[in-house]
User: What shape does this take?
Amino acid sequence: MRTPYLRCAACGKTLPATSPRADCPCGGLLDVVHDVRRTGAALRSRFDRRRRDGDRTVDGSGVWRFRELLLPGRGPTLTHPEGNTALYRRDAVARWVGHDDLALKHEGENPTGSFKDRGMTVAVTQAVRAGATAVACASTGNTSASMAAYAAQAGLPALVFVPAGKVAAGKLAQALAYGARTLLVKGDFDACLRLAREASDALGLALLNSINPWRIEGQKTIVWELLQQRGWDPPDWIVVPAGNLGNTAAFGKALREAHGFGLVRRVPRVVSVQAAGASPFYRSFRGGFRRRYRVQAETVATAIRIGDPASHDRAVRTIRETRGLVAAVGDREILEAKAVVDAAGIGCEPASAAAVAGARRLVREGTIRPGDSVVAILTGHILKDPGVVMDFHARAGRHRNPPVTIEARLSDVARLLKRR
Ligand code: F0G
Assistant: This one.
């Protein structure tokens, strides 16, 4: 079959890239299979030229710049554009982590404030080309915000399923504002995903969760873009927060292909970091991946409050192939990491901070060694979850910075300045 095409990871069945299905009829997950004529230095220089000369359209997008290895071909491309996110280095964060060579790739700088835009631009584009008439997803918030925005651009009705009372204010506001029909489901994310899968099958909606292989294709570009930013010199470690495990799966595929097509000679180790209260993948890792677990998830990082990750098998492959690791960090560590990233003037949402807390854990254990290069992925913007920020600074703690109410007079200001 002409590439790219889809292949089921469970039964091996193949489908054309124009298939409207998000998963295989057998229930297995589909992978996109690629082949390209150009490889190695020729491919690198093509991507580099587009990065250098691309305008704010398809070539300039940090996703579509890599289109040969995503979704090539004709038809409309729904791009914002997205990607081109910065790699930051900040002494205060490096000091807290205890490691000098630490960079933060800020995916919160995408158009709707999270990495989801990278997957969504490809998945909505493919859905439009495949003739979709409506799109749907389950979400802890960011996926729904992103899908709503791209659906609006495409002129498609969007239906989102989110856990009632467990979505951060910024994300819910976005889904509503961009015009998605938003259903607050009495249940957790895992229940939302079950319902969204059922509804998509029964009602003919295009399902755009990360079980959709085109989402994975777009999210590969987080890794490719960071390799490109480093002049195609891979870091030793890439650390990423993990919930439904779509991103962990995408990172493995990105590295497998980057190596297979000669973009890099060496592959970094991927570390997936879960919140301790939502860590079925960590539990499975600890048991040598002999078993898959489902848990009742609870964590302050609502983005990764997921107990039964859909991309488990794909993510296992990533950890195995990259000699990677899985870590779990408590809510207190997550909030402290977030406070440090925020106070460095960068800022991120709680789930993103799990990556930084995870890096610190591995440095302290001696797993990440002095001299190793580390890139942690900040997955979402600080303004996604203002509620957590206000709560944190209202409570006692080392990093707190509560607001102060004063009378409208100079003496109050002077008194406060003196007290500092
Ligand atoms: N970080 C943020 C900010 C997220 O929103 C998510 C997932 C993750 C990390 C974890 O990524 O699921 O690929 O392992 N958010 C999904 C959503 C579940 O619905 O927005 P993952």
About this structure: The radius of gyration is 21 Å. The longest strand covers residues 269-275. The pocket of F0G is lined by residues 114, 116, 139-143, 210, 241-248, 303-304, 349, 351-352, 379-380 (CB under 6 Å). The mean pLDDT is 96.
